Each structure stands twice: as C-alpha cells, then as structure tokens.
C-alpha cells in the first residue's frame, strides 16, 4: 500500500497520538525531534485519527459558557427564515393547522439530528470542527479520502454570498433605499461581512459577547411578534376583524401534494439550520462538565426557537388574511407589521429587525466555519498545516477566517446577478447534504468499531429511531433536487436545467475521488515514495499532522 505511516516502516515503534474510536496503544516513540520549538512524532498506521487531539485548545478552553452556547445556536437558527417562510409553507400545505404541525415536525427533525451529534461529541470531546472529525472517525478507510473531499468542499465552497446580499437588501431597505443597484447591494454586503470577519478575527471573547447581544435581540424581536400576536388574538387590535378565523377550522384546505410536502420539509430544515453550531467549539467550553452543559443547552435552544417559530406563525395567521399570506411569498412578516402597526412599521422597523438577524447569523456562521476550516488544516490534507493550525496573532483561527472572507468576497463580486449567482449558491447545498447523510450513518460504524475494540458505549447514546428518522430526512433532501418543479425542467431559480447544481455537485465529488486516488496511490507508486504522517506539537499548544514524502533512499520532502 502506498500510503504508509510509521508503523509500516522497519524498526519503528508505534505510539498513538490522539483520541480515536479504538483502544489506545503506546510503545516507544518512533521519531522525535525538536524543530522550531515543535515536538515531531510519526503517527501509527492503525490509527483512525488523522489530526491529533490538542490537550487544551489554543483558541481558549473556556470561551463558551451555557449562555454563550444558547446564543450561538439561536443566532444560527434564527436568520431570515421565520420572517419569510410562513407564506411559502401555507401555499405548499394549504391550511394553517397543517403548517403548525409541520413546524412541530421541523422541531423533531432538529432534535433527532442533535441527538446524533451529541453522541459524536461525547465520543470525541477533545476535537472541534464537528463533521470534519466525525467523518474522519467513521470512515477511516480509504485513508485520507473523506478528509480530502470534505476539505475541498468546506474550503472552496465556504462563501456566505447569499447571506451578504440578504443583509444588504434589508439594511438598505430600512434606510429608505427600496431599489438599490446590484453593485450597491454587493458593496454593502461585503462591508457587513468584513465587519463580522474582523470581530471574529480580533477576539473570540469579544465576538462571543457580540453574539450574545445579537442573540438576545433576536429573541426580543421574535418575542415581540409573539406577544403582539397574542394581543391580536385576544381582540386587542380593533381594526383586525375576527383574528381567530384561521383557527376555527384549522385543517380546511389541506393539500396532499407529495412534492409540496417534501419542499416544505426542505424549508423547515433550512429554518432550523445551525442547531448544532456550538458543537463545532466543543473543546472551547468552560465549566466543570462541558458535556453536561451541552446536553441541556443545545436542545433547550432548539426548543426555544421552535416554540417561538410556532407562536410567531400563529400571530401571522391571526393578523393577516390567509389568502394574503399565500400570495405574500417572502413578505409575510412585512404584511404582519403593516396589518398590526401600520405602513411605516412594515416598511422600516421589520427590515431593520431582519438586517440585525442576518448580521447575527453571519457572525455565528463565521465563528463555527473558522473552526471547521482550522480542523481541516490540522489534518494535513491542505498545504502548510502549521499556518492553518496556528492561533496567532489573536488566539483565533486567523487563516480560516481570512480564506473564508476572500472566497466570500470573490463569490459576491464575480458572478453576475441572476443565473450565475443563484447557481453558485445552490452548488453549496448538494455536497453538504451528502456529507450530512454520511455523518448520520457514520454513528453506526463508530459504534461497531468500539464494540469490536472492546470499548464501552458512549456516555450519551442517541435512540436508533432518531438516527433512522434523521437519515430518512437526509435522503429526502438528496432526492428532492432531482424532482422537476411544477413549472417544468427549466422552472427552477435558474433559466437552465433545474438540477444542474446537483449534477455538478456530484461531478465535483467524483473529481475529488479521482484526485485522492492519484495523490495517494498513483503518484507514490510511480515516483517511488511513501506518505508518512508526522504529528507536530507546537509550543503555543496547537497540534497538527504533516504528511511527508519518504523516498527509497531515506530522503524526506
């Protein structure tokens, strides 16, 4: 085999360097040296771990407390979805009762996925980065395949262009510019993203405090909608006639269109997206028992958000006639504010709230994404792993933040408005769904690995029904992009074939496999070298894997 670690070389001892799914083994270190203040050690070929566990996160071991976890997950979940999804859900499902039931379904989908992710975190508590780690552990063979593929998609497609445009659109609308040019929107969006990136770069503790403030603002905004909705339902807003009309026969008009139901589930999944964000920072949580803190804070955040979604939707149904909601598209919250508080509130107050919500979402995405990219860099499958892993100069994942910012700026500016922009945004979704499905299925593989190694089960174990349910939802999310829209094969959000982004996404996955095979098998065989993993421990606390070529004459490069 052309991929070879220290254990495959003659007269070399074996020593595990980090947590893995199997039993820890130790013997004489194989190769140790001091190099620029770093301790270097060759990794064991039998290890399922690619990146080593850092004893203490160099980004900080107590950045997050229970309130920070709640705020981070709430900021990720509450973006623009609740302000816009109600109208499209009612148009798809037909009745307010069915819509409310689907919000409950969305809550269950998020909780079932969270249960699986919590089991992963209990298995690998010392590793940040979420899916990076879980895929590495569940699919250890073929060696480097999943780390390499996930690295490509997570770095190359790490842009947040659509979020930037949403932020700019609502911010300009709140300032009175109802018809901004494309370039003005892009410029404002990039400016907002730059501010968010600088906050995440300069200080983790500062940005987490900002995140907490923004999370509270979102809760206040949704709470205001909910409370005002109760006032409407109680008859406190005199100009709204019969506010309970939608609830007398709540399931009247229910539609049984399977395609519409599946699309509604996709929208719900989007509305709850990010319910696991704090798990990407699992090694930065303070307190005596971080895992216990995660066990109660993460589901609580989902329940809080899900409850607010349900009651906010009820407020919409009470204040706005159902036919108006069905035809509102993404403007249902604007209709609500206009009906209850007048034209000025609908035209100015709501856009400001949505802009704040969008900015908070950008900050939360950056906090988690920068950790994911850093963890990918620590695996050694990207060039210069030392730079990716380094916490310098601010004890933050600086290179991950910078690369994400550069890609976002390019993808916000480069594609022309319309088809090209919509396509590159859609392109992110399909590979992401593939990796998510593999993550959920991977928990079964890890359980089997631990059982074969004679290790006890995790301290937290997801129910099998929750895992299977979440796998089924993930399969649905992968199948639906292939179902033609009602308007035909050219009726998607682009003027060409509706499923082009899914086809290209699969094509990129195939190219990743081809690249991996050439890199790991073909080139070493024909050029006469082996790939050896060297685990490097830096004085600043960071640790990473360096993939080194070892030639037949003993040279290393």
Automatic annotation (TrEMBL):
Membrane topology term: Multi-pass membrane protein
Transmembrane segments: 66-91, 97-118, 144-171, 183-207, 219-240, 260-279, 300-319, 349-368, 398-418, 430-448, 460-483, 495-518
Basic and acidic residues compositional bias, start-end: 16-26
Pfam family, one: AA_permease_2
Keywords, alphabetical: Membrane, Transmembrane, Transmembrane helix
Gene Ontology CC annotations of this record: membrane
Region called Disordered, residue ranges: 1-38
GO molecular-function terms, A-Z: L-amino acid transmembrane transporter activity
Gene3D superfamilies the UniProt entry points to: Amino acid/polyamine transporter I
Subcellular location field: Membrane
Keyword Cytoplasm: no
Protein name, as recorded: High affinity methionine permease
Organism: Leucosporidium creatinivorum
Species lineage: Eukaryota, Fungi, Dikarya, Basidiomycota, Pucciniomycotina
